[in-house]
Every structure is written in C-alpha cells, then in structure tokens.
Amino acid sequence: VSYYVGTLGTHTEIKKVAEEKVTLPCHHQLGLPEKDTLDIEWLLTDHEGNQKVVITYSSRHVYNNLTEEQKGRVAFASNFLAGDASLQIEPLKPSDEGRYTCKVKNSGRYVWSYVILKVLVRPSKPKCELEGELTEGSDLTLQCESSSGTEPIVYSWQRVQEKGGEDERLPPKSKIDYNHPGRVLLQNLTMSSSGLYQCTAGNEAGKESCVVRVTVRYVQSVGMIAGAVTGMVAGALLIFLLVWLLIRRKDKKRYEEEERPNEIREDAEAPKARLVKPGSSSSGSRSSRSGSSSTRSTANSGSRSQRTPCAEAARRPGLAAPACGPLGPADRASEPKKAPHATLTKAENTPSTVPSQSRAFQTV
C-alpha cells in the first residue's frame, strides 16, 4: 500500500495590468532528494471551465511552447529544481486571466498551489461630445465614453484652468446623469460657461481623458442675423409689390382711355335744343343752310317736275280747278317749260293779274 502525503497550498489572488509582467508563485521541497523523478505542471482554467497546460517539466526537459497564444511569453521564474517553480508571463494579455494550478510531484509526494489571476485593462481614450445649442439660456449635454476597459469605469468632468482665478468646478446649474455617468447636463448657459472641459475615465488599471471646448454665443447676434435676413426679404417683397401696383395702375389707366370714347352713359343729360330767331344767322348756319337748300332745291325740282295742273289747283284754293285727267303725249308736249327757281319766286311774290284759266298753269 502506497501512502501519498499531499500539501494543499493557499489560494492567492493577483491583479495585474495588461502588457505588464506577472509572476505566479509556487514553492516546494520535493526536488532535492531525487531530481530525476520530479514533475512540475502549470494548468490554466478559464472562465468557461476549459483547462489547458501552460508549461511542464518532466524527465529533465521543459516544455513551454505548448500553444501559439502563449509561445515565447511563459517561463519558470527561478530555479525550479531548488524549490521555486513560480511562473512568469510577459507581456500579459487579457486572455491570460483565469485560475492557475501548480502541481509538483516527486516520489509519491505532491504539492498543489492555486493562483487566481485577474488581468486589468486600462480604459481606452474616451471620446468627448457635445449635444445641444451653444447659445445663452439653452441647455448643453457633455458626454464621454471609453470603448474598452475593465469594468467598472468611473467618469468625471471638470473645467480646465486657462487663466488664473478660474474655477475647476462645473457651473452651478449642472446635473450628473447617474444612469449614464459619462453625461453631464449644463443648464441655462451663460457667457461664463465658456471654456475647456475635461472628461476622465478611470478604473483600477489607470486613467484616460479627453478635452472639449464650449463656446457660448450671444443670443442677440443670432437675433440680429435673423432680423436682417427677414428685413431683406420683406424689403424685396415690398419693392416687388410697389412695382406690380404701378404696372397695374398704368395698364388700368390705358384701358380706361381706350374705352372712354365707346362708353355710353345712361345718366347723361340729353342735348338741349337751341332756338334760332328768324332774322339771326351765322356763318355756320349759313353754310349748313346753303348745303341743305341745295339738297332741297334738287329734291324740289324733281318733285315739281312731277306736279300736274290738277295738283297745283288743288293746293291753291283761289284757283279754279281745271279739267284734270291723265295727260297724253300731246298734252305733255304742250306743257310749258319751267322757269328758273329765282324767277318763280319773284313771280310768286308779285300780284298776278292773269286770268284764272292761265294762272292754273303757272308753277310756283
């Protein structure tokens, strides 16, 4: 019956920053009596429970290039045959994190040691951003966040002194969003809120920071620009309206001038008749009368030529009515020739002594 005497070492926890060097301790006293039967083995169990061999010593040989990921980065830190089988890893990577087990066996005796290694990753350089309007009276949100790093990451904001006497604290009306520690709300901005603001992201491994500048603009300047633009637009519209009204008025006036001669007013007074005395005459009436008398003379000459003695006798009551009847050719031939109009007028005004039979054949 073989008896095995074992020693269970204490658990050791080590935290180390990535890219640095770490030494995992493992000590024993089993190699001095018989060195040929000494076996040393380091095992790594990750967070998912998978186990793999990191480095071994057996049959007087060291095997330390067991995986490509750890090749050239792992080795025994000291004289493992003399009792120090500590493991050294350099440079440290996040994948090296886990539970390490050191097993030392020799001639039926063994020693186990456990080391929990936690690899810390520094926060990546955060990115600073602004959300909101940079005008007086508005609210502004400062935000920063690191894309990588070991949790928890703590964020803090502060002002950067550019001149002597400036306060490093945030403005009085500032609120921190505890659900998102990297966000800070600056309320009711003023001109004194302008300046540099620094965000720092930190954890157990270290810190990183970023800087952003806040420049608050005057509200009046924005209002003046908007008012100037509005005034220019309104002025252009007013000029356009005036030009349009002038053109419209000119066209309307031209239309009225063209339509006035053809316009008939129903409420206009009828022209008044002008009475002319029998003895009065003017150059205008004379000219008109001369024209009309010539027309009448022509018409009267035509009508008188068609009068018969019967018609003339009927028109003058003092004359005896001759025997009237249709004129034959002989009668027409014996009809006396007509005298001129002036002679007839004169004869009409002179008392006639012609007998009634001959008077019937006189033409007036």
Characteristic key phrases:
alpha+beta, 16 strands, 364 residues, 24% helix, disordered N terminus, disordered C terminus, 6-stranded mixed β-sheet, 4-stranded antiparallel β-sheet
Q: Could you characterize what this model shows?
A:
With 364 residues, the protein is of the alpha+beta class. It is 24% helix and 28% strand. The chain is built from six helices and 16 strands. The strands form four sheets. A six-stranded mixed sheet has the order 1-9-8-3-4-5, with no helix packed on it. Strands 10-11-14-13 form a four-stranded antiparallel sheet, with no helix packed on it. The protein is elongated.
The run of helices and strands is EEEEEEEEEEEEEEEEHHHHHH
* Low-confidence runs: 1-7, 276-364
Number of strands: 16
* Share of residues in helices: 10-25%
Question: What multimeric state do the chains show?
Answer: single chain
User: What integer is the average pLDDT?
Assistant: 74
The strands making up the biggest β-sheet line up spatially as 1-9-8-3-4-5
Alpha-carbon distance between the two ends:
192 Å
Beta-strand residue percentage:
25-35%
Tally the helices: 6
**Rg for CA atoms:** 69 Å
How is the main sheet built? 6 strands, mixed
Derived structural class: alpha+beta
What is the global morphology?
elongated
Protein name: CXADR-like membrane protein
Organism: Moschus moschiferus
Transmembrane segments: 222-247
Subcellular location: Cell junction, Tight junction; Cell membrane
